[in-house]
Every structure is written in C-alpha cells, then in structure tokens.
Amino acid sequence: MADSENLENTYYDMVPSDLRTTTTKHNRAEKAGGAVVALTFDDGPGANTAALLSILEREAVPATFFLIGEHAARHPELVKAICARGHQVENHTWSHPHLPTLTPGQIRDEIAKADDAIMRGGAPRPQFVRPPYGEYDSRVVAALANSGKGGVMWTIDSEDWTMQANERTIERATSAQPGFVILLHDFVPQTITAVPEIIRRLRNRGFSFATVGDLVACNPSVCSGSMIFSQSDCGRQN
Ligand SMILES: [Zn+2]
Asked: Within a domain: residue 145?
C-alpha cells in the first residue's frame, strides 16, 4: 500500500488548477481506505467518450483513459474534458500498432507523438503507456524505460471488445479482487450501457475506485520500465 507521503503526490496535483473540479476532490476522497480497483478505458477519445464522462461524473468514479494519439489530436476538447473531470489521461501510442513489430526508433516515436497530442489537449505528460493488444517484448520495455514511463497492462480483460452480450462483460469486470486493473473500451456502445451496473456491483462488493496512478501510487523513477498488471506490481522489472 502507498504511504501517506505518496498519496500527497497524486496525479491530480499535476492537473492544471484551472481544470480541477469538485469531482476531482470527490475522487480523492473515495480512495481513502478499503478495497480499491481501477477502471481503465482504452482507444478513445471518440464518439462515446462524452456519454461515459457523464456517467462517471454522476457516479463520482475516477477512471484512467489510455488514449490513442491520433484520436487525441482529433479531439483535444475531449482530452481536456476527461482531464477536467479528474480522470487520469495516459498513452496508448500514436497509431495503435503491434509494438514488437517496430524498430526501437519507431516505438519511441509512437510514444512521443501520443504524448504530444495528449499534452496539447491540456493533460499532464503521461506517466504510463498501455501497449496495444497487450503486446510487448524486451525492446518495448527498454523504450518505456528510456522514456521514463511504466507500462500498464490489466488484471481482468472484460472482453467488451468482442461486442458480445453485456452480461458477460459485466460478470467479467465485476469478478475483480482488491487492487485489480480492469480493461474496458469506450468505443464499445454496450460498455457505456454496462458501466453503471459494473460500478453498482463493485460497490456492493465493497470496492471503491481509483485511477491507475493512485492505485499503484508509483514514483515515476520507480515505475519506469515496470510492467504493471495490478496494484502490487509497481517497480517490478521485466
Ligand atoms: Zn487498444
């Protein structure tokens, strides 16, 4: 678990003060004590992101968005909206390639271009990269370490990307244990519909919600080059 010193230095402290909202403060309050999980949404921002933000705001749930750089460049207003509501904005590469098929220079460019697009939307510099398709090798890990970032995987794949029935997605997502990172996608319309029920069932099981950054409470100098699958993985080298 994080010590109090780490908790004082959270992602939200890096969000420009004019973008902070009351939701941000509420988010910080919820993570105090008890079992915590992190909802993560990949591949945005896009057509469903605003609807998802409304649900998360109503539920006062913080989440982590792994944005595709190309999409962030197309929708800087959505990057700003995600950030303004106290969510964490992180890097899912520029064009969503299979990173192990690229040269080290291409991997570096994929990460750097996405950083630039996300920061142009007003978000702090990303601390984490989620490799597309969860694919990484030693060169990807080296590129992450060189860019001072950690890699974030997941503990549960909701498999919402299969576009199958909602109930299966909900059951998978709500089978979480404390400290789990849950993979979802906001481009899937069924996922947006499922989110309120996922939140309700997890709360009924005693969980509260944190961003990935707050879940692992990672110092960038420690998590750089780590591959994080759940709360306990900060600093694990691969
Ligand atoms: Zn993806």
From this structure: yes
Q: What DSSP state is assigned to residue 226?
A: B
Give how many domains the chain has, as a whole number.
1
Domain that includes residue 22, residue range = 4-217+225-233
Query: Looking at the chain, how many residues does it have?
Result: 238
Instruction: Give me ligand 1 centre to Cα 2, in Å.
Output: 28
| Spacing, Cα 96 to ligand 1 middle (Å) | 6
**CATH number (domain holding residue 74):** 3.20.20.370
> What is the amino acid identity at position 26?
H
189 C-alpha to center of ligand 1: Å? 15
Residue 8 C-alpha to ligand 1 middle, in angstroms?
31
Q: Which residues are annotated as catalytic?
A: 42, 185
The 10s digit of each residue's pLDDT in 174-196 is 999 999 999 999 999 999 999 99
Residue 29 has pLDDT above 60, yes or no: no
pTM of the model: 0.86
* Contact indicator for 174, 198 with CB cutoff of 8 Å: yes
Residues around ion ligand 1, judged by CB within 5 A, are 42-43, 132
Q: Helix, strand or coil for residue 185? A: strand
What digits encode the pLDDT tens for the residues 149-177?
A: 999 999 999 999 988 778 999 999 999 99
Q: What pairing do the DSSP bridges indicate for beta strands 35-42 and 64-67?
A: parallel
